[in-house]
Amino acid sequence: MGQTAIQTDTLTKILQSHPAKDSNRVTPLLQLADAIIYTDPVGAMRYADEALDISEKEKWAKGIALSLRQKGNVYYVLSDNTAAMDSYIRALKVSQPLGIRRLDASLFNNLANIYSDLKQYDKALGNYREYLAASRELRSTKDETIALVNMGTVYTDMGDQEKALDAYRQALAIAEKDHNTNFIPIILNNIGVSYNKHGDSRQALSYLGQSIALSDKYGNKDSKAGSLNEIGKIYLTGGDLAHAKEYALQSLVTAKDLGSAEWQYNAWQTLYNVYERRHQYDSALLAYKNFVLFRDSVSNDEKRSALTRKELQFDFERKEASIRAENEKAAALADAEIRRQALVKWAAVIGALILLLAAFSGFMLYKKRRDADERRKEADLKARVSDTEMKVLRLQMNPHFIFNSLNSVSDYISRHETATANHFLIKFARMMRMVLENSEKSEITLASDLEVLELYMQLESMRLKNNFSYEIRVEPGIDKELTLVPPLMLQPFVENSIWHGIRGKTDGGRIQILIGRQDGMIHCIVQDNGVGRDQASRITNAGKRSMGLKITRDRIDIINQTKGANAGVDIIDLPEGTRVELTLPLEVND
Fold first, then answer.
1. Gap between the Cα atoms of 127 and 143, Å rounded
2. Are residues 414 and 562 in the same domain?
């Protein structure tokens, strides 16, 4: 049994020994929530909510602040930065009057980290300064060092090298005084990165070399992997591809020993750039595949890698087509010059033939250039289609939907609702299989597409406690088994209806999907009675919705370009809810 499992079992027993809903139960609840935050964030949130409820009933201010902080931590793990920030700010408002500076310090640091992730650097620096002040009041040199390093990173990203180096040197002085062998190589690495970003490769190499030496001395492989790869990037920028490759490979070996997906991803990225500049396309393709594999390791690795290979191959084909066209043009010009010299000698005898051959040569040259141009256009179109298909698959197989679905199954199992969990899993597995199968095809039957859509709505309805109903109607004149449509065109709009329209309503929502004919086209309607786009944009981030609409418009442009069609999409704001009208070419499988 792992250490985490032992800790969880111990905390569970302690919690069971405090069944009374009083302040004595709050501490083990929060400790248990923290222990399982990465393995079971939904369960962690339940414990944090219970701790908050008890603290509020007991009017225990410190318990309220601690519970809100823990809820913020869970939201941060779930990548819900808005909710995490709200919880941290509420916790800070409760904690500051209590004068518990260590709690204040942790909240300022957490808020600063979120603002830094969002690239709101002024707000990040303000909270890091509060964290630094609290750390100095507490005489916690470890927290003071962390605050200074984080501030240096923000200044580096902002392009203010002077302030970045000042913060790093203050942190280095504290770490050296405390003999903190874990922090020193990291700080030296950060100083080297800062010099590199500001064009001083000589100083960068000096500090990165010191970082590697101390990393070896103190056994800090994480810092070593980062410094080795940064040196590789410096040599790559300077055009020294041999040394760039050498240091990137050393970084990769260290990252593999460490088991770090992040540093393996960075090392493969550097190696890809080295091989591409050397025109070693086979090695570049292998490096790019590994780079994508580690970058997207949390979601659908195999499928994404395959699509990335396909996209990269089109890029190579475009380059090869361009090279072939230039070679053909040069060869044609050389042949024309030879023919011209020969024709000059025989001009008096075969004048008419010269004109005929010249015309034919010009036509062939024009044809070759035209064919090369057509090949480039075809390769560009294929690359655009591949890129759009990859984005569509990522949009449907997004990690949040998979994560939320699997958490729902876990929740059903924890509540001993085995039949419901099995029912949910069967639908989820069928939908995932159909999405993967359909993503390989440019067109599928309307019946198959609507089946995937209905499975998706059933899963979301189960997860959201049946707070909405839906209806799918197809005009009698349309044969669902013979009518062909591009896969997954309606799903992004249905997702928007559920998550940005209906979820914001207090009463039950309704989604209508209508399929009919109009002017020789297939006419699809997705209509909901949600809160509408204006109100939804005020309570949630519209980025995901905008991405779904952009990808759909890109797919429609490709359909119109390849089929000469007049497909389109319109979004109409209703007095209550939103209506999406999608028009597609009517294709029938004879």
1. 13
2. yes
